Every structure is written in structure tokens, then in C-alpha cells.
Amino acid sequence: MTKPKIGLQLWSIQDACREDFFAALQAVKEAGYDGVEFAGYYDYPAEEIAAWLDTLQLDVAASHIPYEALQPSRIKETLAFEQTIGNQRIVIPYATFDSLEKWQAFAQEIKEIAQQVQAAGLTLYYHNHAHEFTEVPDQSMIDVLCKDNDQLHLEADLYWLAFAEVDVLAWLADHQETVGLVHIKDMQAAPKESTEINSGILPIKAYVQAAKTLDLPWLIVEQEAFQAYGPLEAAAIDYLQLKDIVEEVHQ
């Protein structure tokens, strides 16, 4: 199986991106990452971002796109932007509703969006947090979204699965036909928040082994809380730690 590329979800270094987007991308490349997952473009045009990526030799793993940008009035513009920067994977990063009926209505809208995204040669993903497993008692809203929608794929955030007390490895096995990307981050025990890879309590090596079984093209690092290091330094540590694990698993 092909060794996956390692990308960084740029939400992890959002302040650096906001201050100097090109310099932030350059720092990601210097840390060793193969590519990035975008979380906003800070009003830069697609052509300029594409030129930066080419200059830095960074690939696009995916991009988190707000659901609002995929509505009928905006979706053509959104898809054209993504095509220009060389992105093939559009990820809806978040949704929340207070009833099963509202989730089901959202699932129908997602089905229609997925068809338009696929028609443009891209793939639509949904990224989970923990609440999709707790918002409606005893039901998984992820399964509601995926029901009768073969064109929707999942970006499984393994940290949030663990946070929701889901059996991560069993869940991945059960959803192997749908999971196309994963977020990798470690969890500090107390307070319960993300931390640098190999500094927390999650079985990251087992996650990488599961990703190998699924033959995933990317492992995407994300860190949302910082204890001893700033975001850029933490991202560099995350890359080195994950790279060593990938090398071990794929040797």
C-alpha cells in the first residue's frame, strides 16, 4: 500500500495565516509537510494561492468549505475557486441540529450538493466532531448523512470520535467504504483537549495502522489547543512525530 502524505489543517495555525498567509504556508513546507488542508483563504484570489502552492511545492489535501458557500447562489463560484487551486476534496466542516428531522433534511440537501460537486470532478466530504454521536440520543447523525448517499465521503476526525467515547478502530472498520480522509491529533487527559502527537493518551500508531488498511492518501494533522508550544512550533513537532510513526508502520 502507498505511504500516505502528511498534511496540516491550517486552522491549527490560523493566526499565522491571518498575519502573513504566504509565510505561514512557507513555514508548513519547511516543517516537512507534503500539503495543506485549507480553512479559509483570507480574501486572497485563487490564482495567487495556486501560484504560492506551486512555488512552495505544496499539494492540496482538501479544503474546509462552509455549508453556506455550497448553496445554489454560490456553489459554482466555490467550485471554480477549488478547481483553480488544484483541490479535489471539499469538506463540510460542521453542522448541528436539535432534532432527527432537521438532520434528515440536512442530509437531503447534502445529497444534492454532493451530486453537483461530483459533476464538477470533485468529491464532497463531511467532517465530524463529537456531537453527531450525542445530539440525538442513541443515534449517529453520521449514519443519517451517509444513508442512501454514496457520493458523500467522510473525513473522520479520530480525536473527536474518541472524545465522544466511540470505539475508533471498530468505527473505522464499519465505515471503511466511506472514510476517505482522517484527522490525526492527540488528546491530553486533563483537561481533555488536543495536544502534540505522542504527548497524549490516544493510540496514534494504531490509528495510522488503520489508515494503512484503508489505503488512505492523506493523514491530516490538526491541533486546536496548545500547552507548552505555540501553534507553528507544535505543528512542526506534530509532523516529526507522525512521520516517524508512518515510517514505522509502512516499513
UniProtKB/TrEMBL annotation:
Q: Which residues form the signal peptide?
A: none
Q: What Pfam families does the record point to?
A: AP_endonuc_2 (PF01261)
All copies of domain Xylose isomerase-like TIM barrel, residue ranges: 25-231
User: Which InterPro entries does the UniProt entry name for this protein?
Assistant: IolE/XylAMocC-like (IPR050312), Xyl_isomerase-like_sf (IPR036237), Xyl_isomerase-like_TIM-brl (IPR013022)
Q: Which domain of life is it from?
A: Bacteria
The protein, known as:
Xylose isomerase-like TIM barrel domain-containing protein
What species is this protein from? Answer: Candidatus Enterococcus testudinis
